[in-house]
Amino acid sequence: MTPHIPSPSTTAARPGAGPDDRPPPARLAYDRHTWKEIAHLLSNLPVALFGFTYVVTMLSVGFGMTVTVVGFPLLAAGLMGARVLGRLERARARVLLGVRIEEPSRLRLRLRGEGGLFHRLWLQLKDPVGWRTILYEFIRLPWGVLTFGVTLVSLFVLWPVLPFIARGLTNADRAMVRALLSPSDELERRIAELESDRGVVVDTAAADLRRIERDLHDGAQARLVNLAMGLGLAKEKVLEDPDAAAAMVEEAHGEVKLALQELRDLARGIHPAVLTDRGLDAALSSVASRCTVPVKVTVDLPERPAAAIEGIAYFTVSELLQNVSKHSGAKSASVDVWRTETRLLIQVWDDGGGGASLDGGTGMKGLAERLDAVDGLFVLESPEGGPTTVTAELPWRDRSAALG
After folding, report:
1. 370 near 317, Cβ under 8 Å?
2. Using CA atoms, how far apart are residues 318 and 280, in angstroms rounded to an integer?
3. At what angle do helices 364-373 and 186-215 cross, to 10 degrees?
4. Could you point out which of 33, 198, 249, 296 has its C-alpha 20 to 30 Å from the C-alpha of 375?
């Protein structure tokens, strides 16, 4: 089957872009957008006075005290306060101007690392979000005086054309907010995303550890305990009742075989040996052979990706084929794996009844979150009546570089 690349309108793990935050064109009328813009312009002066007073006081005291050790912590604290001012300004722009801006990453992410207290203090002092907010507050005072004065005069003198004046002035406000109070660059946005993704990874790892502990406790460990007890009884009976002792040893031998099989299954669930030794082609063929419907596997890879990416790809396909077996009612399925530039692509298709969704209780949402945590993408197409197509993308990450 030729792999099908789903359209952008398909259900995906990542949310799409937000709504357009541009207001409607200005006109000779006082609608709610115009009144909000007038309120924003009139509030510019008191808000700017407060912000300017704060940053001037903070910088004067902080830099003035740098001759002592106290000055640098004061500056760091002042920058954290500037972050709060920036958050309030973004909220004001969101409510009155309709400007929707992502919040910058939290400063505590920057404070993780080696170097101790002084290193952390230095990172706080270099905080670009705080310094850009300070620059914003400096600019806002003269701008606040200008916009307040123009708007106040226009309310009594230029009333008919005030909507156009307000739109021009607030467009400059919108530009300043976007330029100085937005996350500094793409890295800021990715840090914010990875912060939430890290929680998903930690939760998933904790759940996997609990599952392994439970499987060991209820499976192989219980059998080994019974085995030890059985061998102890056989040891006591070996002289007085050799036949009974032999039967106990035979039973213990069976328990050993079962315990070994459970340990092999558990090890395969952690990381299968066939994946390490022979790669995705052989490993996915092994998974497909255990599916309850016929599965055609096609793997077209010029080389092997990073070991971690291989593992994620393997367990993604494994869980998707389990869903095919349990929920789809399919008669056939296929798995295609290939590389496109720097991405590893996986597509799992089945001719079942469809109707699958990310929140349908089949583990699809968990798969989407796991892929998203490593900068991957998970796309699901499953109309009622079928067929179902799942496309997953993962970063390739060269194996030799990862191992080096």
Report:
1. no
2. 11
3. 130
4. 296
What is d(CA 80, CA 62) in angstroms, rounded to the nearest whole number?
Answer: 13
Check: CB of residue 86 under 8 Å from CB of residue 103.
no
Specify whether the CB–CB gap between 352 and 329 falls below 8 A: yes
What is the tens place of the pLDDT at every residue in 313-342? 888 898 888 888 888 888 999 999 999 888
Q: Are 245 and 252 in contact (CB under 8 A)?
A: no
Which of 118, 123, 91, 122 has the alpha carbon at shortest distance from 107? 123
Burial zone of 348 (CB within 10 Å; 0-12 exposed, 13-18 middle, 19+ buried): buried
Fold of 273-403: Heat Shock Protein 90 (3.30.565)
Give 331's Cβ-side CA count (13 Å radius): 0
Q: Which residues contact 2 (CB under 8 A, 6 or more apart)?
A: none
* Count of other CB atoms within 10 angstroms of residue 53: 12
**Under CATH, what is the fold of the domain 195-270?**
1.20.5
8 Å CB contact between 387 and 351? yes
Q: Are strands 377-381 and 11-12 parallel, antiparallel or unpaired?
A: antiparallel
Q: Report the alpha-carbon distance of residue 288 to residue 294 in Å, rounded.
A: 8
pLDDT confidence bin for 401, thresholds 50/70/90: very low
Interatomic CA distance for residues 64 and 68, integer angstroms: 9
Of 355, 346, 298, whose CA–CA distance to 319 is shortest? 346
Beta carbons within 8 Å of 192's beta carbon, 6+ residues apart: 102, 103, 104, 105, 183
Cα four-point dihedral sign 334, 337, 338, 341 = positive
**Mind listing the pLDDT tens digit for each residue in 15-68?**
333 344 667 676 667 888 889 999 999 999 999 999 999 999 999 988 888 888
Residue listed under structure tokens 């006591």: 236
What does the block give as tokens for 83?
Answer: 């972050």
Residue 388: beta bridge partners? Answer: 350
Which among 251, 262, 329, 315 has a CA at the least distance from the CA of 284?
Answer: 315
Place of tokens 């393997």: 314
Kind and range of the H or E run holding 234: helix 221-237
- Edge-to-edge strand order for the sheet containing 377-381? 11-12, 377-381, 388-395, 343-350, 333-340, 295-300
Which residue, chain included where needed, has tokens 């400063």?
107
Structural domain boundaries in the chain: 19-184, 195-270, 273-403
